[in-house]
Amino acid sequence: MRGDLTGRVAVANPVSVNIPGVYAVTYNVNDGNGNNAAQIVRMVTVADTTGPVFTSPPVASETLDANASCKALVPDFMAGVAAVDACTGPAALTQSPAAGTTVTRGVTGVTVTATDAHALATAQIVTLTVLDITPPAFTTPPVDKTVDADASCAALVPDFTAALRRWTAAPAW
Can you name the CATH fold of 53-131? Predict the structure, then answer.
């Protein structure tokens, strides 16, 4: 048989477009007179190339008060966060720096990453700001003093600054 044999092509197509993997697609054709063409096999790769998506993302920023050493502990920004991948389902979450890590005063980027089963990752950065917002406090406040007036009813004001030099506050660096 000569001519167009398109309608006689047999295709064995086991490709599952929703499941990543490598599949063999087989093509056969017979001309109707018992003559078979050489079988052709083509490999099809279905690959997951898209990272997971945050369905409940982390907060964008958080501000903390520094402790007496001008430091704070990184909170757990993964609490309440969820991410899902279209191919593999729920994604694994990590945070860097980890919750409980000590950071100094200033701005720190905390990365929350969602990783799927094919090692594809999506990250969001939380801006963590540590500020010294605690006002200083006197450890020994000055005490009242009574001074005697001289013959012209004048008196010297005592120096209270010696007591004022003993106060607590975070360093200004």
Answer: Immunoglobulin-like (2.60.40)
